[in-house]
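Workshop exercise sheet. Pairs work together: one partner reads the sequence aloud, the other fills in the structure field after running the prediction. Swap roles for the next sheet.
Pair: D.N. / O.F.
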Amino acid sequence: MTPNAKQDEHAVPHPDVPGRPCSVAAALQLIGERWALLAIREIFYGNRRFDQIVRNTGAPRDRLAARLRALQEVGVVERRAYSQRPVRFEYHLTEAGRDLAPVMRALLAWGDRWAVDAPPVAFRHHGAPGSEHEEEHDLDPTSTCRTCGEELGSGGVTIDVRAPGWDRTGPTDDA
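Structure field:
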Protein backbone atom coordinates (compact mmCIF):
# COMPACT_ATOMS: atom_id res chain seq x y z
CA MET A 1 0.00 0.00 0.00
CA THR A 2 1.16 3.50 -0.71
CA PRO A 3 0.55 6.41 1.67
CA ASN A 4 -2.43 8.70 1.29
CA ALA A 5 -1.78 12.22 0.02
CA LYS A 6 -3.34 13.39 3.27
CA GLN A 7 -0.32 12.92 5.53
CA ASP A 8 -1.66 12.73 9.07
CA GLU A 9 -2.33 10.08 11.68
CA HIS A 10 -5.76 9.43 10.15
CA ALA A 11 -4.49 8.86 6.60
CA VAL A 12 -6.01 5.86 4.83
CA PRO A 13 -3.46 3.84 2.82
CA HIS A 14 -3.90 3.48 -0.93
CA PRO A 15 -3.72 -0.21 -1.82
CA ASP A 16 -1.86 -1.33 -4.90
CA VAL A 17 -4.44 -2.75 -7.30
CA PRO A 18 -3.98 -4.36 -10.71
CA GLY A 19 -5.23 -2.70 -13.87
CA ARG A 20 -6.09 0.96 -14.34
CA PRO A 21 -4.93 3.29 -11.55
CA CYS A 22 -8.30 4.13 -10.06
CA SER A 23 -9.68 5.44 -6.80
CA VAL A 24 -12.77 3.23 -7.21
CA ALA A 25 -10.56 0.11 -7.36
CA ALA A 26 -8.53 1.33 -4.38
CA ALA A 27 -11.70 2.05 -2.37
CA LEU A 28 -13.18 -1.35 -3.20
CA GLN A 29 -9.93 -3.00 -2.12
CA LEU A 30 -10.39 -1.38 1.31
CA ILE A 31 -14.17 -1.53 1.87
CA GLY A 32 -15.74 -3.38 -1.06
CA GLU A 33 -16.62 -6.62 0.64
CA ARG A 34 -20.23 -7.35 1.63
CA TRP A 35 -19.63 -7.83 5.37
CA ALA A 36 -17.42 -4.75 5.55
CA LEU A 37 -20.09 -2.52 4.00
CA LEU A 38 -22.85 -4.01 6.11
CA ALA A 39 -20.77 -3.50 9.27
CA ILE A 40 -20.24 0.14 8.25
CA ARG A 41 -24.00 0.46 7.69
CA GLU A 42 -24.73 -0.82 11.18
CA ILE A 43 -22.23 1.56 12.77
CA PHE A 44 -23.86 4.42 10.82
CA TYR A 45 -27.19 3.29 12.27
CA GLY A 46 -25.72 3.52 15.77
CA ASN A 47 -25.23 -0.22 16.36
CA ARG A 48 -21.65 -0.21 17.59
CA ARG A 49 -21.33 -3.41 19.59
CA PHE A 50 -20.11 -6.61 17.97
CA ASP A 51 -23.19 -8.66 18.90
CA GLN A 52 -25.50 -6.00 17.43
CA ILE A 53 -23.48 -5.90 14.20
CA VAL A 54 -23.50 -9.72 13.95
CA ARG A 55 -27.26 -9.88 14.57
CA ASN A 56 -28.15 -7.14 12.08
CA THR A 57 -25.83 -8.22 9.26
CA GLY A 58 -26.25 -11.98 9.51
CA ALA A 59 -22.48 -12.28 9.05
CA PRO A 60 -20.58 -15.26 10.43
CA ARG A 61 -18.85 -14.08 13.64
CA ASP A 62 -15.34 -15.00 12.46
CA ARG A 63 -15.76 -13.26 9.13
CA LEU A 64 -17.22 -10.15 10.70
CA ALA A 65 -14.39 -10.01 13.24
CA ALA A 66 -11.87 -10.22 10.38
CA ARG A 67 -13.65 -7.46 8.42
CA LEU A 68 -13.82 -5.16 11.44
CA ARG A 69 -10.09 -5.75 12.09
CA ALA A 70 -9.32 -4.92 8.46
CA LEU A 71 -11.49 -1.77 8.61
CA GLN A 72 -9.65 -0.76 11.77
CA GLU A 73 -6.23 -1.38 10.14
CA VAL A 74 -7.06 0.92 7.22
CA GLY A 75 -8.50 3.63 9.45
CA VAL A 76 -12.22 3.38 8.65
CA VAL A 77 -13.33 2.28 12.13
CA GLU A 78 -11.82 2.48 15.60
CA ARG A 79 -12.47 0.41 18.70
CA ARG A 80 -13.30 2.20 21.94
CA ALA A 81 -13.62 0.52 25.31
CA TYR A 82 -17.05 0.92 26.90
CA SER A 83 -16.48 -1.46 29.83
CA GLN A 84 -13.38 -2.23 31.87
CA ARG A 85 -14.63 -5.30 33.76
CA PRO A 86 -14.77 -7.22 31.57
CA VAL A 87 -13.02 -5.19 28.86
CA ARG A 88 -15.51 -4.68 26.01
CA PHE A 89 -15.31 -2.53 22.93
CA GLU A 90 -17.60 -0.63 20.57
CA TYR A 91 -16.82 0.29 16.98
CA HIS A 92 -16.95 3.91 15.87
CA LEU A 93 -16.43 5.44 12.45
CA THR A 94 -13.35 7.57 11.94
CA GLU A 95 -13.38 10.64 9.70
CA ALA A 96 -12.68 8.31 6.76
CA GLY A 97 -15.61 6.13 7.81
CA ARG A 98 -17.99 9.06 8.26
CA ASP A 99 -17.02 10.27 4.78
CA LEU A 100 -18.67 7.10 3.43
CA ALA A 101 -22.14 8.53 4.23
CA PRO A 102 -22.88 9.68 0.66
CA VAL A 103 -21.65 6.33 -0.70
CA MET A 104 -23.96 4.45 1.66
CA ARG A 105 -26.90 6.71 0.74
CA ALA A 106 -26.17 6.17 -2.97
CA LEU A 107 -26.08 2.38 -2.52
CA LEU A 108 -29.35 2.58 -0.57
CA ALA A 109 -31.00 4.69 -3.28
CA TRP A 110 -29.81 2.34 -6.03
CA GLY A 111 -30.99 -0.68 -4.04
CA ASP A 112 -34.38 0.94 -3.40
CA ARG A 113 -34.81 1.48 -7.12
CA TRP A 114 -33.35 -1.70 -8.57
CA ALA A 115 -32.96 -4.42 -5.91
CA VAL A 116 -36.12 -4.48 -3.75
CA ASP A 117 -39.87 -4.25 -4.27
CA ALA A 118 -40.37 -1.68 -1.50
CA PRO A 119 -37.72 0.36 0.35
CA PRO A 120 -37.21 -1.14 3.82
CA VAL A 121 -35.51 2.00 5.20
CA ALA A 122 -35.89 5.74 4.55
CA PHE A 123 -33.68 8.58 5.65
CA ARG A 124 -35.54 11.58 7.03
CA HIS A 125 -34.44 15.21 7.02
CA HIS A 126 -35.63 18.43 8.55
CA GLY A 127 -34.54 21.87 7.47
CA ALA A 128 -33.15 24.53 9.72
CA PRO A 129 -35.62 26.38 11.96
CA GLY A 130 -37.37 29.05 9.93
CA SER A 131 -36.58 27.44 6.56
CA GLU A 132 -39.38 26.58 4.15
CA HIS A 133 -38.68 22.86 4.77
CA GLU A 134 -38.51 22.92 8.57
CA GLU A 135 -40.85 19.93 8.93
CA GLU A 136 -39.32 16.46 8.67
CA HIS A 137 -39.55 14.83 5.24
CA ASP A 138 -37.96 11.98 3.28
CA LEU A 139 -34.42 12.85 2.28
CA ASP A 140 -33.95 13.32 -1.46
CA PRO A 141 -30.21 14.05 -1.80
CA THR A 142 -28.56 15.45 -4.90
CA SER A 143 -24.98 15.95 -6.00
CA THR A 144 -23.75 19.46 -6.64
CA CYS A 145 -20.45 20.87 -7.82
CA ARG A 146 -18.67 22.53 -4.91
CA THR A 147 -17.01 25.01 -7.26
CA CYS A 148 -20.07 26.43 -9.03
CA GLY A 149 -22.98 25.07 -6.99
CA GLU A 150 -24.75 23.51 -9.99
CA GLU A 151 -26.63 20.24 -9.55
CA LEU A 152 -24.99 17.39 -11.44
CA GLY A 153 -27.05 15.80 -14.15
CA SER A 154 -26.20 13.32 -16.86
CA GLY A 155 -24.42 15.98 -18.92
CA GLY A 156 -21.65 18.42 -18.23
CA VAL A 157 -19.20 15.98 -16.64
CA THR A 158 -16.10 14.83 -18.51
CA ILE A 159 -13.27 12.49 -17.57
CA ASP A 160 -9.74 13.89 -17.24
CA VAL A 161 -7.44 10.87 -16.84
CA ARG A 162 -4.39 11.98 -14.85
CA ALA A 163 -2.61 8.66 -14.35
CA PRO A 164 0.59 8.60 -16.42
CA GLY A 165 0.40 6.14 -19.33
CA TRP A 166 -3.39 5.93 -19.31
CA ASP A 167 -6.27 7.59 -21.14
CA ARG A 168 -10.03 7.04 -20.99
CA THR A 169 -9.86 3.91 -23.18
CA GLY A 170 -6.94 2.23 -21.36
CA PRO A 171 -3.14 2.16 -21.37
CA THR A 172 -1.44 4.38 -23.92
CA ASP A 173 1.50 3.36 -26.06
CA ASP A 174 3.82 5.57 -23.96
CA ALA A 175 3.34 3.29 -20.91
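Discussion prompt: The beta strands are 77-84, 87-93, 124-125, 137-138, 166-167, 170-171. What would you look at next?
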